[in-house]
Amino acid sequence: MPPETEPPPPPKRSTYRHGNLRSALLEAALELAREGGPDAVSLREVTRRAGVSPNAAYRHFADRGALVHGVSQAAMARVALAMEAEIDGLPAARDPAEAARARFRAVGTGYIRFAVTEPGWFRTAFHVPADMTYAADATAAGAGGLTPFELLGASLDGLVETGVLPEARRPGAEFLAWSAVHGLAALIIDGPLRGITPEQAHDAGQDVIAMIERGL
Q1: Of residues 19 and 90, more confidently modeled
Q2: Which residues form the HTH tetR-type domain (predicted)?
Q3: Domains, the chain, ranges and CATH?
Q4: Which terminal residue of the chain has fewer beta carbons within 10 Å of its beta carbon, N or C?
């Protein structure tokens, strides 16, 4: 049998409009991250998929760390889109307090649903940075202009505005809620709950969100 050979690289694109190359590199990196998480993202493979030389990437990303940061922010924006989709799918509610509760639950539901259905992107979204510096950066925002952290904050503000959550208990509430929901998501995709079904994951998520709501 003839020896196996590597597949030929995609045809190189001779020109890119301003900004298009960066977008093409990010899209290629997102494909890799979706398949294998942040560790799967490499400059060599990203440029191969984008159809450009490796040196072309350095015009937009100083090194692999900068590329992974960019794809992390892009993955976070997809978390925001999933949360927005969950909110947009809510039925109309006449009672403002119930509507605020539903939005809060939808934020958590969308977050967990994304983790379960897109574990590669979810892992990538939280790979970098190591602090909250970019938690409100526009590069991590959904269609409505809010990042996942901001969507959670807005849902908590809605609980305060409708009298569901006492104003005195609002400070820091987003960190408590986020920790519980993220912890469940991590247990489901990378921990001992990996074997549960999507239905069980959904039910567990609803139970955790209800627990958070009662404790606020």
Answers
A1: 90
A2: 19-79
A3: 69-215 (1.10.357.10)
A4: N
